[in-house]
Amino acid sequence: MKTALNTLTRLLDVLSRIALWIGGTGLVLMTAAVGWQVWGRFILNDSPSWTEPVSLLLMLWFILLVAAVGVRERFHLGLDLIRDIVPEIVRVCMDIASFVAVGCFGAAMAFYGLELVMGTWSATIPVLNIPEAVNYLPLTISGVLIVLFSVERTLHLLVERRSQAGSEALAQAHAQHSAIEQPAD
């Protein structure tokens, strides 16, 4: 189980890094497009028509991909006040419930995003002359990533908890065995 989880983690490390690179590149390209829009409007007195739809499209991609990575890296918003004061077992259960809920949300994003992609593939974005579905594709991709990252985090919690319980039991058995071997004074 542990080697399969390690393999999954390495694969998701690569997917996470790719998503972050695409997100970062999208942010830089969107900033350049907005800069070009400002330059065209105020300096050239001729606003390019393509900059707004490109900026919106890039923003959708980088926000949704980086949000999926946020699930994996746990830098999404959360209220840890209650989580930090409860016993360990309750904390683990809360974390698992959280990842299950986020995973279900990601599955809904992927499912309904795919419906939007399929329903809008034949329509085109007029200025860009690309399928309208490209606007909804990041919903599907980030939804799938959110599901994968949630499953990975849940498995890590369960495996760590199980191995923690096993090592605690081993330490307790070792302590009892040592106590039996100690000669009485």
Automatic annotation (TrEMBL):
Transmembrane ranges, per UniProt, are: 18-39, 54-71, 92-113, 133-151
Q: Does the keyword Secreted apply?
A: no
Q: Name one GO biological process term.
A: C4-dicarboxylate transport
Judging by the UniProt lineage, the source's domain of life is: Bacteria
Q: Where in the cell is it found?
A: Cell inner membrane
- Membrane-topology descriptor: Multi-pass membrane protein
Q: Which UniProt keywords apply?
A: Cell inner membrane, Cell membrane, Membrane, Plasmid, Transmembrane, Transmembrane helix, Transport
Where is each Tripartite ATP-independent periplasmic transporters DctQ component domain found? Answer: 30-158
> Entry's InterPro entries?
DctQ, TRAP_DctQ
Q: Name one Pfam family in it.
A: DctQ
Q: What assembly does the database describe for this protein?
A: The complex comprises the extracytoplasmic solute receptor protein and the two transmembrane proteins.
Instruction: Quote the protein name from its UniProt record.
Output: TRAP transporter small permease protein
- Native source species: Azospirillum thermophilum
